Amino acid sequence: MTVGFLGVGHLASALVAGLMRAGVPAHTLLLSPRGRASQLSSLYGIDVAESNAELVRRCDTIVLAVRPQDAARAVSVQPWRDDQVVISVCAGVPLASLPVAPARLVRAMPLTAAEIAASPTVFFPDIGQARQLIEKLGPALALRSETEFEIATVNAAIYGWAQTLIRQSVEWCVAQGTDAAMTRQLVAQTFVAAGRLIAERDEPMDDMLTELVTPGGITELGLTVLNAGQQPAVWTKACEAVLARLQEPASGAGG
Predict the structure, then answer these.
(1) What is the set of domains in the chain, with CATH numbers?
(2) pLDDT over threshold 60, residue 250
(3) pLDDT of 28-47, one tens digit each?
(4) pLDDT digits (tens, 9 = 90+) for 141-165
């Protein structure tokens, strides 16, 4: 299978890095001639197509990773074939707006953690050729509908919010006198631990939190302060704002 990247920006660079880490041979990848193509070509020895049309002609799977507002134009009037799969990673761009027939079309939302094979990637519909590629980047989560996919895409924003919380926590600890390198590892791995425990245990999350929050303890104290500051309501409002942006016609939503 030859994989082409139509659009070579920040996210595509992370995906390429992840595929190389997973052992995908460089000669099975192809880059469109823009963005970071020359940089990635020099780094990994990946060929750069002379044009988008050449890339489409040569590849079995094409990852569409252009700016959302450019997506429809980038795929129009290309030599698509019925044996091809196009994986769009353009946030907020519905399937119906991408004219790639007779090729099959999949929407996916990988995170930049794909570069270390740690991206939980939602995708729809579940086409084997797309799943085969996505699974190399981390957990592949097939969804039931495009509506469900749009809601799940809010997680791409939450990913950035989580990194912001990590940064803020590290900065606070360092300001109190802890070692910066150690604290960065501690806080980051604490978030990893919290996520893994929820992902790998089956009991209701409320039950898990009840076990964790000792009455009169430090976790309860911190949650009390956060609740008093309207954290749950503000977080919900942020999620709803992102979803509204994703659902706007031709939203051009980016990461």
Answers:
(1) 3-147 (3.40.50.720), 154-247 (1.10.3730.10)
(2) no
(3) 999 999 899 999 999 999 99
(4) 999 999 999 999 999 999 999 999 9
Across 130-150, average pLDDT: 97
Alpha carbons 95 and 86: distance in angstroms, whole number:
10
